[in-house]
Amino acid sequence: MTKKIIYVLIFFQSILAASQTDVELLKNISLEVCESKPLFCKAYNYYNLRLYDSCYVYSGKALLTSNNYKEKDILNYIQGISAIKKNLYKKALKNILSIRDNSFIESLKESQLGNIYLNLKQYDNSIKHYLIWEGLDNVKDSKITKNAYHNIGLSYIHLKDYDSAKQYFDKEFSLIKKSDTSSIIRAKMDLANVYYNQYLDDDAIPLFLESYNLAKSFTDIELKQNSALNMAVVERNRKGYRESVQYYREYIKWKDSLWNRDKIWELTEKDKQIAVAQKDSEIAIQEEKLKTQKVVQKGLIFGASGLLVFLGFLAFFYKKLQKKNSLITQQKEDLTIANKTKNYLFSVVSHDLRSPMNTIKHQHLQLKKHIENNNLEGIKEANNSAITVTESTSHLLNNVLHWSLEQNNQMVFEQKEYPFKPIVEHVLYDYENLIEANDVEIETNYTKNSLIKADRESLKIVLRNLLDNSVKYMNGKGKITIEMGVDSGNYAYVSIQDTGIGISAERLAKINSLKDVSIDKINRSEGVGLGLILCQTLVKKNKGILSFDSEKGKGTKVTIQLLRSED
Question: Which SMART domains match (predicted)?
């Protein structure tokens, strides 16, 4: 009798599972696991909130402690989705392939494998996994189904199988609601490309034009850009060159308004190459000037005669002596400044390095102890603490270098127009590992991306210092909020607000009162460190304003204001 009841219950559960879509099934099982697994629940909640950076970090942590296959399948899936959102397709592929065959999320696994291989331009593999997904006997989510048909069609286009591409675009089109303008535009453009690649211009061009007109009244900039480019190509191919140029101009306008984080490294490398070329050009000009000066000097020497020769030599030696005296005076002044800078920097290094060196030594002893005891959690904590101290020490040494260069006028400083947002995102990207090691959540809020005129590298130094301070004084896990926008005074600003220990009112007043800072005016006993002094110096050099707002025990908010260029 007992066995029969069990069979009935199992059969009833299987009917419920069969009636759910793959996405609903994932959600319901995840919520069940959440009741007993806090770390898993944290990662899944970040996934639901679309905070993919935090989801990526916490799902990785949960995977280290999970022994349940069902939990591991879900964690690998949500970390894989987070990696896709960060354009880390090879990492995403590793996560999704780790999901077991015949798992309850097999349908989601196959559809994401198809998506990843499409982005990796492995079109045969993409189609292979999408066809496996299509053949699975389960209830599929309509949004995933629509996207899958779209991606299969794209893969067939790349493989020049236009009949199959059209078949799947038609399937996609049949699932699109009339209110879904974005999907309608994409589907029409895809069908138009199928026709156009087969030279069926009479069928393709009306669809291209219809997509373009719909995109003009729609908010999606990428759709505006792509539809304008399609029309530019169409007009060029049918020799409507004037119309083609107009469409290309429109395409470029929309393209300029898009900033892609994945291109930041490429743009940075180009900027470095331009900077090196400019330096080479300056060196060549200086060499030419030196050659010219030598020629002039030789002409004066050989062209003079008699008394003029004597007077010329007398004047030459007099000027040389004057120049030598002036040089000696200048060298003396420079040596005095360099000596003061040296003494100050030695003071900073001797004072600020002692504590982290002792901490690192202590962490190594702790690490050795945890290794002997095979304490994996203790090893991980000691390692994270050592990473934090090492990052802080490296930051101190960088500040010493930058301050020394700035005081001796050796720091390259060149103000140009830059969009503000990519500079901030580049610095944030460099801090992913440090933020993960310190269990810190980071949130961004960009209301407007403005053009600013600034020296980009010195601005990055300031942002790194401020982020280091936020992490350093977080007092355990916490949250950092980055906000960017435009204030009432026509300044572009970025603010960094943390939930750390805050600053006392007395010290805050001293920090905000920093003006023209020099070695003579620095007094470390007043509690103002080299990092903040360097920040104030570099922001002022960029003609900006750096202000601090804090309350003891409630965190700190730092704001950088820079003059906007004309957008």
Answer: HATPase_c
